Amino acid sequence: MAKQKSFIKMQGKVGDLSFSKSRTRGYEVRTPGGADKQRIMTDPNFQRTRENMAEFGSAASVAKLIRIQLNNLMMRFGEKTLRNRLTSVVHRIQKADTVSARGERVFKPENSLLLKGLEFNVNSSLTFMFGLNLPVAYERTTGEVELVIPEFDPRSTVTLLPGATHVRFTLAAVEQTLDPLVIPRPDVAETDYIPLIGTHLEELLTVHVPVDSTKVIYMMIGIDMYQFVNGVYYPLMDNPYNTMSIVDVDIP
Fold first, then answer.
1. How, if at all, do strands 17-22 and 12-14 pair?
2. HSE toward the beta carbon, residue 216, CA cutoff 13 A
3. Secondary structure class of 81 (helix, strand, coil)
4. Where are the beta strands (DSSP E) in 196-242?
5. Are the beta carbons of 66 and 78 closer than 8 angstroms?
6. 170 contacts 244 by C-beta, under 8 angstroms
7. Could you give the angle at which helices 47-69 and 82-95 cross, rounded to 10 degrees?
8. Which of 41, 77, 157, 217 holds its CA 20 to 30 A away from the CA of 197?
9. 135: pLDDT confidence band, cut at 50, 70 and 90?
10. Which residues in the chain are classed under CATH 2.60.40?
11. Can you tell me the mean pLDDT for 22-36?
12. Backbone angles phi, psi at 141, to 5 degrees
């Protein structure tokens, strides 16, 4: 026998009514609730809320600058949660400001070390993909950043993914900026496509940032996989394990 589950089967908004479907309660209709914007912005009881809003807005702006700087790398190695995770880390750096009043705390370069260890892909990591240390060295007086990839046998040191025939390592470095009109882009170096069979000899990657820079420097290492077919290297686009991490943050 047919049963009437609900007399409302609408989803969306009609005027000030919002129609939705809950997995546990079925179809629902609600009217707007909570404090309106005018009250939040003027009522003394919402002072803390206004402070939080101001600081979060500032954190979102700084995170956006970092995303613009690293856009190409984030598109290649990142996943959908990176944007929110980056904003969260920037917000923590902002809260490390011990001088400014609440609601006025700012992102200070000297607190940027909290960015170290940020994974572009929350589902993966350098240590998961590669079983050896990847030491990075930075010399501020020359602007050189070097990565030594030690000799390795992929069969015992690389996480072998279905369909992958080759692996590639990426080194990138860039100056920090808080100026939306001056956005330096990272210098990037990559290995050749390394077969996932046989021993790969030690290799050195080098990138450069400005000599004697007075700014914070981000250094990143990435690993991604490829499939070699008929003379072409195809990235594993559906691979959830491509990884890049901010491995070091050097503060002058």
1. antiparallel
2. 19
3. coil
4. 203-208, 217-229, 232-235
5. no
6. yes
7. 120
8. 77
9. very high
10. 126-250
11. 63
12. -70, -25
The pLDDT value recorded for residue 29 is 64
The pLDDT tens digits for 211-222 are: 999 999 999 999
Non-local (6+) Cβ contacts of 149 within 8 A are 134, 169, 191, 200, 202, 203, 204, 205
Residues 195-219 as b/e (b if ≥16 CB within 10 A, e otherwise) read ebeeebeeeebebebeeebebbbbb
Q: What angle do CA 50, 52, 56 make, to 5 degrees?
A: 120
Residues in the chain: 252
- For domain 126-250, give its CATH number from 2.30.30, 3.40.50, 2.60.40, 1.10.357: 2.60.40
This prediction's pTM: 0.81
Sheet order of strands, 136-139 included: 136-139, 144-149, 203-208
Q: Which residue has the tokens 């290297």?
A: 233
What pairs with residue 207 in β-bridges? 145
Separation of alpha carbons 111 and 39, rounded Å: 35
C-alpha to C-alpha distance for 41 and 55, rounded to whole angstroms: 14
User: Strands 136-139, 194-195: parallel, antiparallel or unpaired by DSSP?
Assistant: unpaired
Place of tokens 């279905």: 162
- The one-character DSSP state at 160 is P
Per-residue tokens: 108: 């200070």
